UniProtKB/TrEMBL annotation:
GO terms for molecular function: phosphorelay response regulator activity; protein-glutamate methylesterase activity. SMART domains: REC (SM00448). Gene3D superfamilies: 3.40.50.2300, Methylesterase CheB, C-terminal domain (3.40.50.180). The lineage of its organism: Bacteria, Pseudomonadati, Pseudomonadota, Alphaproteobacteria, Rhodospirillales. Its EC number is 3.1.1.61. The gene is cheB_1. This is protein-glutamate methylesterase. Signal peptide: none annotated. Keywords: Chemotaxis, Cytoplasm, Hydrolase, Phosphoprotein. NCBIfam families: PRK00742.1. CDD domains: CheB_Rec (cd16432), REC_CheB-like (cd17541). PROSITE patterns: CHEB, RESPONSE_REGULATORY. The modification 4-aspartylphosphate is found at D63.
Amino acid sequence: MSALSPLIRPIRLMIVDDSGFMRLAVRKMVEGEKDIEVVGEARDGEAALSLLESVRPDVITMDVEMPNLDGLATTRAIMRRRPLPIIMLSSLTQKGAQTTVQALEAGAVDFISKSSSFVQLDIVGIDKELREKIRYWGRHPLARPAPGQPATARAQAAPTASLPALRACRRPGEVDLVVVGVSTGGPRMLPAFLKACGRLACPMVVAQHMPPQYTASLAMHLRQDTGLEVSEGSEGTVLAPGTVTVLPGGQDGGLTPGLGSTWVLTLRVLASASIHPSVDHLFETALGVAKTPVAVVLTGMGRDGTQGAGAFARRALPVVVQEPGECVVAGMPFSVLEAGHASHVFPVARLGATLQEWCSPGASRPAPDPERGL
């Protein structure tokens, strides 16, 4: 790459992994990159914490499974002490997936799966992804949180007063389906969102961008954390009121009519989708089965969900986005706002309470608030 401007210092990277081979692999992935500098390496969490103040990294890559202090405990300690963007390197095992989901909720910003090819140092397919994530998070440092609040990225968020205008929208009568799109930051935001929603009188389906193996752990964690009926969906899953179905990672879930008045989940892998599960596909198929659905777009990077939100807008149906300033990454909500598809924008707590009201039997139809979309 071209020489780095003298006005821009390199991103300072610390590598934490108990395997010397893996530390070497990560180092080789960034060798020769003028804008990334490895400033420290640690073989476990205790060593990482002791180095933290002396090397002052901008970004940390963190192994999940380590002796003495594992990746989860180390992430929690760093987020208490000095919040930093942490990218988890996770093995494709049930234990690795479960710990990764917990680390993401604890404050890690992203993760990469350590596949067998990664271990063999066949890194052509993964080094580009890692460098992109290091660069993104190195340029979007975490904001220091208020006491008791999670750290969030200073990423694409705009002050509420400067957000694009919301389209006028009267919500329909009693909402019969809630579909949710979420990506980066989802494991951190979803527990609070679901707790705010409580048990809804209609089904909810969540498209969380994740690879296979991880969404089952996410669903289990959400079920344990919230006490709600949360499960990973599969081909033919029948949606029921009060349930939350998490689409399986690496596949694109859509909805079709089932027996009687039921709706069922169908799974495929869309060649047209750049990331899976596709939020656009979920939103668009929801319109084919539900009469009064609501689309929700939470924290996430990219534009997935914008096209599907446009389909909701053309039907004059509600599209609710999370307050960008509250997001870990505001790309997805802000994309929907910029496209003019959003009808409401709320912080998570109010968003959940609003959905609870809208889904209640016999819910009334309030006039829209032109400033906040209520």
